[in-house]
Design brief:
The chain is built from 3 helices and 8 strands; from the N terminus they run βαββαβαββββ. The chain has 103 residues and is of the alpha/beta class. The protein has one domain: FAD/NAD(P)-binding domain. The strands form 3 sheets. A 3-stranded parallel sheet has the order 1-2-5, with helices on one face. It starts with a strand and ends with a strand.
Length: 103
């Protein structure tokens, strides 16, 4: 049976957590229990926050510090762009506004 991890929020913390979990399970996980990691966020724009310091001085522009979220995640991590409707902790399911359910 596949273990599924859903991370709500694709900011710096969510992205870092997803990539570290992927690396952990790749090196320490069981071959008999694969792991699927999904990151959910409402938009597909990851802002490199330290780069914001350079924008007002003309040393960087918006397009240089913004990247697609999927580009910041390992290729085996699924990214879902949607709003979260609610989380049912008893059913271990995340319901998205677009109608998708993530168990």
């Amino acid at each position: 049976m596949t273990k599924r991890i859903v991370i709500l929020g694709g900011g710096t913390g969510g992205t870092l957590t997803a990539n570290r979990l992927h690396r952990h399970f790749r090196h320490h996980g069981s071959q008999h229990q694969p792991v699927e990691i999904t990151v959910v966020d409402q938009d597909d724009h990851h802002v490199y926050q330290p780069g914001l310091l350079f924008v007002p001085f003309g040393l960087a522009n918006h397009s240089e510090i913004v990247r697609p979220r999927q580009a910041q995640l390992h290729r085996d991590i699924e990214f879902v762009q949607d709003l979260i409707d609610h989380v049912d902790i008893h059913a271990d399911t995340v319901y998205l506004q677009g109608g998708r359910e993530l168990p």
